[in-house]
Amino acid sequence: MKQKHQTYQTALAAVALLAATTMAHAYDAPAGGWGYIYDGSGGAAGSGGTAFDSLDGTWNHSGATGPGDSDNWDGSAIGGTLGPGNAPGGVQTGTDGSVNFLRIQDPGSPTAYAGSNNRTIAFGHNLSGVVNDSFLNTGVTLSFRARVPKTGMDDLLNGAAPITYPTTTGDGYGNFGNGLGAFYVKNSSGASGDGGVRPGAIGFSLATSFDTWNTTNSGPGLMMNNLNGDVLLNNVDSGEAGKVNMLPVTDPTVWNEFWITIVANDATPGNGTHTVSIWANGATDPVLFNVTGGNNNQDYQQMASMGMALANNTLSGAMDVDYFAVKDGVYAPMSVPEPTVMSFMGLGLLALVARYGRNRRG
User: Fold this and answer.
1) What is the reported pTM?
2) Per residue in 250-260, pLDDT tens?
């Protein structure tokens, strides 16, 4: 009887684990695990300045002690009564079933809240010790799961009158700031490689049909650096020159999971500076893009960043982040078993439970 009871408990535990697994990730972590992963559960403002004590205690938030050029978050969450210390937009954590997530909203450029307006929200994680000095050239693997929220948001303030947040499409974001995005990685500005030139910055942003920069550059999709020449360049962002690079996404307002590898491109003219390979939502084959690295030099160490930054006083956006992970080197993803396989496993486990129940009653 004791053995059967243990089998029963094991089967129930396995069914519970199966249910949790099917809700978690489309891809397993790479061999040896991630070098760093943010799991969406930390939302601390931190002390600001050069301290890396925000979110889960390992991120920089330069505006925490006062508005700065790269960050204007006043420490407030979204919603509530607007006023000093609670400007429109903000940062907060939330839950969606078993998912912990970070929510960020840049409401645009609310002129009534000069000096404390949440128009630029940027978090940086120092990757020193996680990746090598020239990781964008030698190869890096990223993964993140994100969506564009549709409800519970503040109005957009890109002019004198508020604009109601678009609850049908959500308000996503494009790339900005010479290769930056809602998610981006960049090398140390002093790193060697690429002929002694900085290997640059490469970013990714979930955009919706609400986000339009010109007639050929809008969502829905995952935006990244444009292809605009074979050297690091400033003009590689959404709405700028070059070939638009976007992975189409059916619905950015639901959870979308991306696995991305980045490595320096070959010397073929017209190939840009890097090859970006993207697997999405359980796909087993990547979509390849040639991109041009951005010539961004804001940071002097290897960085991963999440956030949104004011660009030309016109961009606004919001995103939810389930997780963001980085690992040195190039790794293809290992898919979690297909739902049909998982279903058969679940049926088998449930049959085992039922059989134990019948035996116990008999």
Assistant:
1) 0.83
2) 999 999 999 99
